[in-house]
């Protein structure tokens, strides 16, 4: 990590990053599947919960948590430098502190979300600009598939929303095909997600001529 990101990690990780039992030792990215997170205990209150899958450098997370202090945000990010970057942004936004309504889990979200959270406990799930794996032979690695849609559907409260965004038109079509065919999920918007800020990745996609697609599906 760059020095400023490492410094933010060293100062804030013990507060903001959850230390959960791992299936194969401390360096594993797989949480023990017998562990179910007590979200109310983690945040010290009961509030609408947003789960961000792949928080990257934290633009949406910090924006959302700052604008919605009445919501709690759980970010699942497997890339530690991304968490460090987000902690540095958070520190800049708060004058050096962690946001009290944000926690991270350094983990493979696709696996962890099968067991980590109680069914019907999540207000919104965010999947902004997941890895598109553009080559045909790598499409099986994409996180948005029928199996993962079932995982998200289990997590969402009735009326809860899954927000997605991508700058790959073919992946957007694939998302639509998968989610439109999934019982229990209903497309309600293709407008830009209200708390999603412009990021350098999105800007680069636009500069390279790739259209941005936003999708919002609600659990019926």
TrEMBL record:
EC number: 2.1.1.33
Cited InterPro entries: SAM-dependent_MTases_sf, tRNA_(Gua-N-7)_MeTrfase_Trmb, tRNA_methyltr_TrmB_bact
Keyword tags: Methyltransferase, S-adenosyl-L-methionine, Transferase, tRNA processing
Catalytic reaction(s) noted: guanosine(46) in tRNA + S-adenosyl-L-methionine = N(7)-methylguanosine(46) in tRNA + S-adenosyl-L-homocysteine
Residues the entry annotates as binding S-adenosyl-L-methionine: 52, 77, 108, 131
Pathway(s) where this gene product acts: tRNA modification; N(7)-methylguanine-tRNA biosynthesis
GO molecular function: tRNA (guanine(46)-N7)-methyltransferase activity
Stated family: Belongs to the class I-like SAM-binding methyltransferase superfamily. TrmB family.
Protein name, as recorded: tRNA (guanine-N(7)-)-methyltransferase
Gene name in the database record: trmB
């Amino acid at each position: 990590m760059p020095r400023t990101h490492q410094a933010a990690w060293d100062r804030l990780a013990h507060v903001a990053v959850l230390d959960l039992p791992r299936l194969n030792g401390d360096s594993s990215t797989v949480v023990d599947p017998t562990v179910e997170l007590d979200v109310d205990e983690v945040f010290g209150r009961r509030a609408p919960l947003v789960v961000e899958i792949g928080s990257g450098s934290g633009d949406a997370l910090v924006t959302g948590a700052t604008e919605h202090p009445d919501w709690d945000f759980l970010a699942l990010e497997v890339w530690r430098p991304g968490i460090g970057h987000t902690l540095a942004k958070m520190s800049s936004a708060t004058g050096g502190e962690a946001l009290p309504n944000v926690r991270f889990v350094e983990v493979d979200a696709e696996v962890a979300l099968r067991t980590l959270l109680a069914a019907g406990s999540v207000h919104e799930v965010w999947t902004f600009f997941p890895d598109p794996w553009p080559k045909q032979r790598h499409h099986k690695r994409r996180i948005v598939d029928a199996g993962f849609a079932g995982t998200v559907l289990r997590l969402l409260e009735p009326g809860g929303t899954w927000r997605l965004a991508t700058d790959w038109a073919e992946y957007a079509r694939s998302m639509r095909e998968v989610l439109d065919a999934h019982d229990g999920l209903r497309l309600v918007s293709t407008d830009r997600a209200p708390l999603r800020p412009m990021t350098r990745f999105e800007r680069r996609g636009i500069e390279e001529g790739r259209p941005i697609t936003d999708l919002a599906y609600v659990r019926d």
